[in-house]
Amino acid sequence: MFTQIQINKFERVLQKIIEYLTKTNISSNEVLYQTIQKLSLKERKGIWKQIGEKIGASAAEVHDYFFNTWQLQFYEDATVHKELLKDIYSYGRWNCFFLFTM
């Protein structure tokens, strides 16, 4: 579990590493997230270990924090689509085509 200090450092260190790798200036967390998503697996290799060394955490802890906590701020809550999903399920695969063409 990260301390508040580690959480604050995580974002700053992540941003600095990504700016260094991409030679760009990152203006917001959203741009940071989008930039990370564009990196290849080869480019991402070692990022979690580097961050962990800077904030006093293991590479696995940093990786898990990124994927299980930090990036969730960029996802929309699926419950707003609950009724649409129920309709799609109840109409079946063939009829769901008509839901999106109306």
Task: Produce a short descriptive summary.
The protein is mainly α. It is 71% helix and 0% strand.
Tags for this model:
102 residues; mainly alpha; 6 helices; 0% strand; elongated
Walk me through the topology.
Elements: H1 4-22, H2 29-38, H3 41-44, H4 47-55, H5 59-68, H6 82-101
Structure description:
- This protein is mostly helical and 102 residues long.
- Helices cover 71% and strands 0% of the residues.
- The chain is elongated and about 50 Å long.
- The termini are far apart.
- The model has no long low-confidence stretch (mean pLDDT 88).
Number of helices in the DSSP assignment = 6
Helix content: over 70%
| Whole-angstrom Rg | 19 Å
Report how far apart the termini are. Answer: 48 Å
Query: What is the assembly state of the chains in this entry?
Result: single chain
Low-confidence stretches: none
| Average pLDDT | 88
Q: What characterizes the major β-sheet?
A: none
Overall SS class: mainly alpha
Task: Write down how many β-strands occur, each being a DSSP E stretch of 2 or more residues.
Answer: 0
Give the overall shape, derived from the CA principal axes.
elongated
Strand content: under 5%
H/E topology pattern:
HHHHHH
